Model the fold of this input.
Amino acid sequence: MGRQAEEISESVDRGGGDYDPGLYRAAESVPAEPFGGLSDGLRDRYRRDGFLSAGGLIDERRVGEAIAGIDRLIGGGVPGFRGIQWEAGVKGRLADLDLEQRRHAVRKLVYYVDHEPRLHSIAHDPAILALAADLLGAEPELFADQALLKPPGIGREKPWHQDVAYFDVRPGAPVVGLWIALDRTDPGNGCMHVIPGSHRAGPVPHFSRRDFQLCDTDVARDSVVAVPLDPGGCLIFDGLLHHGTPRNTSERRRWALQFHYAPAEAIWRSRDERAAYRERRLAVFGGDGLDVTC
Ligand SMILES: O=C(O)CCC(=O)C(=O)O
Done:
């Protein structure tokens, strides 16, 4: 179940802020391995490390379709779609931007799968749903879809965080995320960085700083690895894995799709249920209200 249409509106990001580049100084890069389905070895690795880096999860044709779908959403080709968040740097200038400039001004798109059949078909691809089912150990339901576009030059950092700190799903339920690169991604244009095994320590308090994030001093800097990907490659990751992305300091685009799946019975079905889950989530992850400091 996605969000209800009236809950989604176009917005401008509030911006991030300066950060210590040492937060993303990776000890190593994990190369993607061509993905041909889950084996016992890969399942064990997912449980141990909290992620898999899968080359070629979607093929070139689908990458092209995804890019065309995003272009259509940004270009205003879908009446009623409002899930665009612009980068803070373009605030006040949006009306002056032509289509090409707008393509490089979007931070993210949210809740689009019901507006774009090509993107819907990737998120609901039977092989992808089977992969999610296998890792969740339950029938999966897509409950969040985003396209994270980190534009050249202005795409800001997404500070270290755990995704489940953001989601109003039943506490303790397994969540699997798929982050699918549509461009080549590397540290220069803001690829994913993760801390292998960090999901096993469970929920960590988050604080409203540059974003809703882990305290910078809670990031295990010595264990950071970068996960560069080619187009169509995918980071498959546990909802508790510590991850983040540096800003895009390059002149290169870095578009990615992100889908999150959870067991159907863990997903909210009403506003009341969601509010209750939110209260329970913030009691665990809402660092500013807990007796901890950052
Ligand atoms: O794509 C990115 O830069 C980071 C995405 C991410 O971690 C998130 O939105 O939770």
About this structure: The first helix runs from residue 40 to 49. The pocket of 2-oxoglutaric acid is lined by residues 148, 150, 158, 163, 190, 243, 245, 256, 258 (CB under 6 Å). The radius of gyration is 18 Å.
